[in-house]
Amino acid sequence: MAEKTTTLEIRNISKVFPGVRALNQVNIQAKGGEIVGLIGVNGAGKSTLMNILGGIHPQTEGEILIDGQEVRIESPKDAEKYGIGFIHQEPVMFQHMTVAENISISRLHGKINYRELNETARKYLDRMGCDINPRAKVRDLPIGERQMVEIARALSSGGKILLFDEPTASFTDAEKNRLFEVIRELKRKGSCIFFISHFLDEVAELTDRTIVLRDGRVVIEGNTAEITREQILQNMIGGKVAEVTAGKERSFDQVVMKVEGLTRGSKPDRVSFKLHRGEVLGIWGLMGSGRTETLRAIYGLDKPDAGSIYLDLEDGRGLRRVTPKETRELFGYVTEARHDDGCLLPWSVWENMSAPNLPSYKKKLFLDYGRQRQDSEEYCKKLNVKTASIYTRMESLSGGNQQKVIMAKWLIRRPKVFLIDEPTRGVDVGAKAEIQKMIRKLAEEGTACLVVSSEIEEISAVCDRVIVLNRGRISGELKKSEIAKEALMHLCV
């Protein structure tokens, strides 16, 4: 039997940041026992609206009513008091604390009973079919597992209004299906649920109603079953989306990087492969297979226990072994967790683009600020970064535009090898196509790219070849024409 349902009403909500009107007179009504899909391109205002409900930002104008009573949500603590649980696109946690401590963070006071704390965490993790150790430190978890912990934290708070902002971006199909079961159960118990996703098939499968935002306004809403995919896309972007197609099989001659026996603990475990000039090589595997760990070890962020990296520096000497210091100087590396280690949120766009390239801007005893800003202006135009100016702080940009800035800072360096972890995680359909085309263009210009992606469609469209990891080891390799869901899954189970 459903519990008493909660109603939420958003009246004429507007939000203005310096130089940007993120929300403009938004009106939404939602009630308990339904799942509302919220869709829009990056910068449409989805996350801004969720941040207002979650107590991250105050609204500039408008009212929020819960069960007919106006409320002021001025902090995450206020949001929790009113029964609002927020599952962020980028997990927000205390990384040096345990999983159990993070799940019960708002209730930690006085003498702590750690046995009870761990049992509580285990209960909510089991509810999601998740076997994460409650005693593990959050800093040691990959991004997908951190997302699971944040969902468990929201569930443990007993929130009646739940905001899911891109929760499945790093999930496998099995994890996504389990999450959907949990969300449907919460719906049956009367929760009012908002679900943001760039995956339109997820919205069609899960939600009861769909609301599309564009330029901070509601442009279409209605029952999900009655709105077509074409209507959604047209209202999201006002036109057709240019997609990246799989393309033709290509052959390569020059090996620019060779990895031999790369090992760090159990992941990666004796990983060896070659990467060619102009090739996009994909790394695919289920969560926990060692994809990110392999990239971090190659780049030199984590010291390997064994193995070597060889690179052709095009000095006539062919492949030679390089040190972690050299790889960090010569490679570009886009991380999967852009807010953790991909960008400096309080800094401006131009400062973020310049940060890894300061030696190249050295002018006698000073830095050439004029050239830094000139390069930033150039790459904002090249990558179609939507920002009021290069002086805008990164935290004010949408997720897709933050990702473009992160890509740009490495493109300015012109890396020998580009390591890209989840290039379009949490990015809308338009920005996704732009980033995928950018990777293909880099390859056509001769850059060797190593790409990790959870999306099979992306791996198929962008990569020339893919290696599959299973528990830290390479379990197989597929040519472009062989990349398919069945073949990939066969190699990783």
Structure, explained:
- The chain is an alpha/beta fold.
- The chain folds into 2 domains: 7-237, P-loop containing nucleotide triphosphate hydrolases (Rossmann fold), CATH 3.40.50; 255-491, 3-Layer(aba) Sandwich (Rossmann fold).
- Helix content is 33%, strand content 26%.
- The chain contains 17 helices and 22 strands.
- The protein is globular, with a radius of gyration of 23 Å.
The oligomerization state is single chain
Beta-strand share of residues? 25-35%
**Helix/strand/pairing category:** alpha/beta
- Let me know the number of strands: 22
Write the layout of secondary structure elements.
Blueprint lengths: L6 E11 L2 E12 L2 E6 L6 H8 L7 E6 L2 E3 L4 H6 L2 E4 L11 H5 L10 H14 L15 H14 L4 E5 L7 H16 L3 E5 L3 H7 L2 E6 L2 E7 L5 H9 L17 E9 L7 E6 L3 E5 L6 H9 L6 E7 L6 E4 L1 H7 E4 L3 H5 L6 H6 L7 E2 L2 E2 L1 H14 L16 H13 L5 E5 L7 H16 L3 E5 L3 H7 L2 E6 L2 E7 L5 H7 L2
Parallel strand pairs: 3-8, 3-9, 6-7, 7-8, 13-20, 13-21, 16-19, 19-20
Antiparallel strand pairs: 1-2, 1-4, 4-5, 9-10, 11-12, 11-14, 14-15, 17-18, 21-22
Question: Brief description of this entry?
Answer:
With 493 residues, this protein is of the alpha/beta class. It has helices at residues 46-53, 76-81, 99-103, 114-127, 143-156, 173-188, 200-206, 229-237, 291-299, 324-330, 338-342, 349-354, 369-382, 399-411, 429-444, 456-462, 485-491; strands spanning 7-17, 20-31, 34-39, 61-66, 69-71, 84-87, 161-165, 192-196, 209-214, 217-223, 255-263, 271-276, 280-284, 306-312, 319-322, 331-334, 362-363, 366-367, 417-421, 448-452, 465-470, 473-479. It folds into 2 domains: 7-237, P-loop containing nucleotide triphosphate hydrolases (Rossmann fold, 3-Layer(aba) Sandwich); 255-491, Rossmann fold (3-Layer(aba) Sandwich), CATH 3.40.50.300.
